[in-house]
Write a structure and sequence with these properties.
0% strand, MYOD Basic-Helix-Loop-Helix Domain, subunit B, 219 residues, elongated
Length: 219
C-alpha cells in the first residue's frame, strides 16, 4: 500500500508538471513565424526604397541631360549670348533658347544656299576664264607662227578708240543704273546691271555700233 501511494503521488506530480509545461508553452509567442514575417516586410520595404531611389536617380539624370543640352545651345548659338533688352538681365527661358536656335539654323541654311550660289557663279567664271585663256593662247600661237601678218594694219590709237567707244557705251548704262547710296546697294546694282546690260547679244550690238562709227578710220 505504501508503494502504491508513493507511485500515485509521483504520477500526480508528473501530470501537474506536464500540465504546467503545456500551459507555459501555449503562452509563449511563436517567435519563428513572427521573425519570418518581419524579415519579409523589411525586404519588401527595402525593395520599394530601392526602386524609388533608382527612379529618382534616373529622373535626375534626365533633367541634368536636358539642362546640359540647353546650356550647350546657349554656348553655341551666338544670338543666345547677345543681350536681349526686352528681358533685361534675366536668364533666357527654354522657349527663347529654342526659338533663337531655330532662327539661327534658318539663318545658316540661307547662308549655305547663298554660298552655294556664289560657288556656282565662281565655277562659271573659272570656266569662262579657261575658255578665254585657250583662245588667247591660240591667238598668240598664230601670231608667233606668222609675225608679219596684219602688221601695221591697225594702229594703237585706233584700238584705243574702239575700246573707248565700247567703254563709253557701257558707262552710260552703268551710270544710269547704279546707285552709290551704300555698298550693299552698290553691290546689288552692279550684279543687276551685269545681268541686264552685259549679255553677249548686248555686247555684240555695242561692238558693232562702235565699229560702224569708226569705219572711216579703219578704211
Amino acid at each position: 500500500a505504501a508503494l502504491f501511494m508513493e507511485n500515485a503521488r509521483k504520477g500526480s506530480i508528473v501530470s501537474r508538471a506536464n500540465s504546467i509545461g503545456s500551459t507555459s508553452a501555449s503562452s509563449v509567442p511563436n517567435t519563428d513565424d513572427e521573425d519570418s514575417d518581419y524579415h519579409q516586410e523589411a525586404y519588401k520595404e527595402s525593395y520599394k526604397d530601392r526602386r524609388r531611389r533608382a527612379h529618382s536617380q534616373a529622373e535626375q539624370k534626365r533633367r541634368d541631360a536636358i539642362k546640359k543640352g540647353y546650356d550647350d545651345l546657349q554656348a553655341i548659338v551666338p544670338t543666345c549670348e547677345q543681350q536681349d533688352f526686352s528681358i533685361g538681365s534675366q536668364k533666357l527661358s527654354k522657349a527663347i533658347v529654342l526659338q533663337k536656335t531655330i532662327d539661327y539654323i534658318q539663318f545658316l541654311h540661307k547662308e549655305k544656299k547663298k554660298q552655294e550660289e556664289e560657288v556656282s557663279t565662281l565655277r562659271k567664271d573659272v570656266m569662262a576664264l579657261k575658255i578665254m585663256k585657250v583662245n588667247y593662247e591660240q591667238i598668240v600661237k598664230a601670231h608667233q607662227d606668222n609675225p608679219n601678218e596684219g602688221k601695221d594694219q591697225v594702229s594703237d590709237e585706233l584700238k584705243f578708240n574702239v575700246f573707248q567707244g565700247i567703254m563709253d557705251s557701257l558707262f552710260q548704262s552703268f551710270n544710269a543704273s547704279i546707285s552709290v547710296t551704300s555698298f550693299q546697294e552698290l553691290s546689288a546694282c552692279v550684279f543687276s546691271w551685269i545681268e541686264e546690260h552685259c549679255k553677249p547679244q548686248t555686247l555684240r550690238d555695242i561692238v558693232i555700233g562702235v565699229l560702224h562709227q569708226l569705219k572711216s578710220q579703219l578704211y
